[in-house]
Amino acid sequence: MNNQGGNAALKVLCTNGLKSVFLEIGDELTRSTGTVFSADYGSTKKFTDDIAAASEAPDIVILTDEAIDTLIAKGKLAKSRIDLARSFIGIAVRKGTPRPDISSLPAFVATLRATRAISRSRVGQSGLHIEALLKRLGLAEELGPKITAYDGRAAHACAEGETDLAIQQISELMPVAGLDIVGPLPDEIQKVTIFSAGIGAMTRNRAAAEKFIAYVKDPARAPVLRSNGLEPA
Q1: CATH topology of domain 5-86+194-232
Q2: Which of 11, 15, 106, 117 has the fewest CB atoms inside 10 Å of its own CB, making it the most exposed?
């Protein structure tokens, strides 16, 4: 990596939950800040494990707030967490198919029982939450056979007809063509995830990383976050 002021090339690891945001704002971010970056997208769990095992973290890491705190505690990230966005778990169906009732916990459970096949993420926050939720409700054995966990394509599986309903972060459902967003999980079973940024403890591009994060955190980005199913943190 170079270290020439605003032209530093940053390495970014980012949760899939914010991928659609960066695909939308990336070019303008570079034009406005002069900061060039290369981003890889994936699950919070995978990136947390990878960074914990590596000798050095990338310049910027954007994961859940808990994951950022964990990596700060391990000395991989600088001691400053910047919260960027709040994310909600939602339901989607294949475009043009009836939208089921998920307005309450009983309605949500009835919808799951009536659905032929359901997709969720395997290691993403939404998938882990649903897995734990069904166990807590005593429904894991009953509903487990119809739920398939996917690595990175739970939404696409629904859009392509492999399943009839997808449960995932709304920000990950929205960019997928061929889906209709039904809405968020009922409040009593919703899990709000905070996506946060951290700067690599050993980065040689700290000033550029701070400029990058400040651009994303700026209130002017709020409409972009909302149009991608997120709320500013």
Answers
A1: D-Maltodextrin-Binding Protein; domain 2 (3.40.190)
A2: 106
